[in-house]
Known about the structure:
By secondary structure, chain A is of the alpha+beta class. Chain A is built from 16 helices and 10 strands.
Amino acid sequence: MKFGDILLSAVRGVTANKLRSILTMLGVLIGVGAVILLMAVGNGSAQRVNSLITSLGTNTLTIRPSGTGSTPITLAVSDQLNKAGLGDVKSVVPESTTSLTVSSTNASESGVSIIGTSADYFTVSTASVASGSAFTAADVASAAKVAVIGSTLATELYPSGSALGQSITVSGTPFTVVGILATQSSTGFNDPNSVVVAPVTRVQRSFTGFGALSSLLAESKTTAGVAAAQGELGVELNQLLHVSAATAASAASSSATSGAAGTGGFGRFLRGATGGGTAASALGAASSSSTLPYTITNASTLLSTAEASATSFTVLLAAVAAISLLVGGIGVTNVMLVTVTERTREIGIRKALGATRGAILGQFLAEAAILTLLGGILGVVAAVFAAQFQINGTQPVLIGYSIPLALGVSVAIGVFFGVYPAGRAATMRPIQALRSI
Amino acid sequence: MSTPLAGGSGSVLELRGIHQIYGTGDAQVHALRGIDLSVAAGEYLAIMGPSGSGKSTLMNLLGCLDVASSGTYMLAGNDVNELDEKELARVRNREIGFIFQSFNLVPRMTALQNTELPLAYGGVRYAERKRRALEALEMVNLTNRADHRPQQLSGGQQQRVAIARALVTNPTLLLADEPTGNLDSESTHEILAIFDQLAAQGRTIVIITHEENVGERAHRVVNVKDGLITSDHLNRERVLAR
Lengths: 437, 242
């Protein structure tokens, strides 16, 4: 019997009971579709996290006090780091953050992040001024009551006109809005578009006091130089903060092994959330041991951590989806068993007419393969269609290899699960098959 | 259609000391107890007997649907007991044309496709298949129903398709199991007329039946009872009429 004949009789078998075939295909469709779509969702969320981390600035390093040092990281430390002339560090800016109520004549917002910093903040961080201008070094020197505010905050405080040049009151202190930040995508718990950025001197004087800063942001000259910049900053900070040589040495050796956050991870996580800094701390990766009075993090360490977790997330989703594919495959076996039983007499007739075992086996295997292949193709179509839409805020990104993989697996499952019913059909003795009704 | 060997020039099938035993122990059934039978090419033979006589068992053996417990069965020069599964399939395909009581057409396939089926299993090319199937349908006068499905045909028409399907491979032996058992008298008459015509063309036909009116149309009648042949005689009237 020719291959075409086997295929033709298989097609006839599939179309003999259309509803049953469609329901079987639906099972495979859901399985294949789920594998492709969930892998796409995993991939999409991984890409989203990556782009968020990249948007933090791959050249940016965050220095945060770890709470163990006797010497606090003050504004003076920030200035000295800037003056030290570190080869790979472009600039260092202070961050003194707090959370306060901001009001205008129209409205009032509570819990707004107040960031006190220097004029270089708008180049070092990813925040950039969209309209108006940034405050200047002179404003910082004179502790001027000027502020650059986030876009969301601007429209909330001045819903019917530009906030530029208007006055806002932060916890009783009036500020003049000189600039509005460009809209940023959210990177953590805090809305980066609901902030007030003001000269650090003014923020310290009015709100946070002249003690320790919340953090420092540093920018390396090149992306490749991030690690070198981190090293230089560490050496300089050890000197400025009077870290003993022994602590520095032991921290250096342990920092080689502790890439991710140690014991202080959760504490930093919370501080990062309330302090309103970057999301770097919220994602919690530290590059230094907690015995040092500070931790330095950079986007690339975050990126690798995030990539690792995204990969396991995708694998998890694929595993869950694979179960539904398996269930679909079992559905194929079930239907093929019913089909074989139902068509026992037909098998007997075909055998009496000279069908070999191979021909019967081929016919039923081809039927199972057609069911799964068609179901699989429809599943691919459904998954590709569904991937056009956002799912729970994530835009799925299809993984190229997932399509042939899911399709191949579904056909393999069809053939695998079809072997048993087809084998039963093929080994049936013709007289017994003919005797059945 | 090639003409089979002239009658009496040699046996196309030969059974020697055939025993068929089913089951074991107390449930053992001795269905055939030593059958010797020889059928020459061109013979029109009826095997008759009441139900339980073993004639259906005999039919299954003759059709290579089952293998005897002991004894030898030679069909067109093949020792059937010696054949493996694949060779048995080939023998069923090439040497035997089956006609069943319940027609046994494959549903969902047209008369033409049903007729083509043995040729498909024989590996005949598509064009050749169609030509030969149409030829076979013409022999049973059903070319006008070629694209009808079994459920669209009457019982008599379905049996005629089955005969066309049995003829299409030009087999050594036409084997019919109660071919008129499910038919009304008019269709029975039609089908028996076709058998007469095929016998006249020199085909070897074996009919298994318990109906006297069917048996008496054959040239030779073999009676079976309790697994043994009780009589084997020529139907002189029919042979002379030939």
